[in-house]
Amino acid sequence: MSEIDLLHLTDAVRDLCEVASRAVLAAYANATSFDAEAKNDGSPLTRADLASHRIIVEGLAHATPDVPVLSEEGSDVPDATRAAWTRYWLVDPLDGTKEFLARNGEFTVNLALIAVIDGVGTPVLGIVHQPVGGLTYIGVRGQGAWREHANERAPIASETPTEVVRVVASRSHGNAATDAFITGLTALFPRLEHTNSGSSLKLCRIAEGSAHYYPRVAPTMAWDTAAAQAVVEAAGAVVWRYGTREPLRYDARVLRNPPFLVAFGDEAPLPAGYHPLAAL
Asked: Which of 114, 122, 163, 266 lies at a 20 to 30 A Cα distance from 231?
């Protein structure tokens, strides 16, 4: 798809995420921990995940019938089939199910279009929609990134820290490697603020300039990150394989991400001890 095709497609995809979010909110109004069941990997699954999945998959089949869909709740497509894809939708119908069950509002509906060149997948369009509050982040590769709320859309861009560097980390996946990275930043910046939050909103905070670093050295899957990565990169920030300055990219046959780092830009200074880690 050309860049102009992506721009025309953006509104339809955003509207689809909003429809899915209404189904999520209907379930959220009555959600309890008893609404969840455990998947094979131990992560929770709710009726909100499934309702959002159905709406998005059906909507994409109508909007782009020639583009396959890989969703967290429908990822059983054979490897050989996925290997032949030249573009595909990568969907997380409900990113942050733990946050959904905790009722803190920090969950999103994520939808990314991946373009595959020479076997390497790059997010070229991403929508991250937060049902609670109706906040939407949009990123189109080569065109820009936007934050939308109450039908008002404004461009966003990452920001270089000046007096304070802000680090965001996962609320539920802290570990020693993350702590070491944050401690290392204190040698580079005189003032550091550290906050925790859930779902892909962490990446979007860097895209909009309200945070500067997000180290992730705990497990994630491709659908957890692709949509927000499109927003981050369109806003001028970066998502690197942890320990490198090489961009995180996608292979439709490999669903688990390696450790990664989101930073405010190519010039972001890195602490001593920043080095590659084994895949999780």
From this structure: 163
The CATH code that applies to domain 3-156 is 3.30.540.10
Q: Are strands 69-71 and 87-95 parallel, antiparallel or unpaired?
A: parallel
Report the predicted TM-score, pTM, of the whole model to 2 decimal places: 0.93
- Count the neighbouring beta carbons within 10 Å of the beta carbon of residue 256: 12
The residue extents of the domains of the chain are 3-156, 165-263
Tokens of 65: 């019938």
Half-sphere exposure of 145 (CA within 13 A, CB side): 29
d(C-alpha 107, C-alpha 199), whole Å = 6
The phi, psi pair for 112, rounded to 5°, reads: -130, 145
Q: How far is 211 from 159, CA to CA, in rounded Å?
A: 8
Which amino acid is located at 228 in the chain? A
Q: Strand runs (DSSP E) across 131-191, as ranges?
A: 135-140, 144-149, 152-156, 165-170
Q: How far apart are CA 113 and CA 126, in angstroms?
A: 7
**What pLDDT, on the 0 to 100 scale, is given for residue 170?**
78
How many of the other CB atoms lie within 10 Å of CB of 101? 19
Which residues lie closer than 8 Å to 89 by C-beta, 6 or more apart?
60, 64, 67, 68, 69, 70, 71, 111, 112, 113, 114
Are 101 and 123 in contact by the 8 Å Cβ rule? The answer is no
Percent helix, strand and coil across the chain, each to the nearest 5: 30, 30, 40
Distances (CA, A) of 73 to 88, 142, 184, 247: 15, 30, 38, 26
Tens of pLDDT, residue by residue over 7-51, are 889 999 999 999 999 999 998 988 664 465 655 554 667 889 999
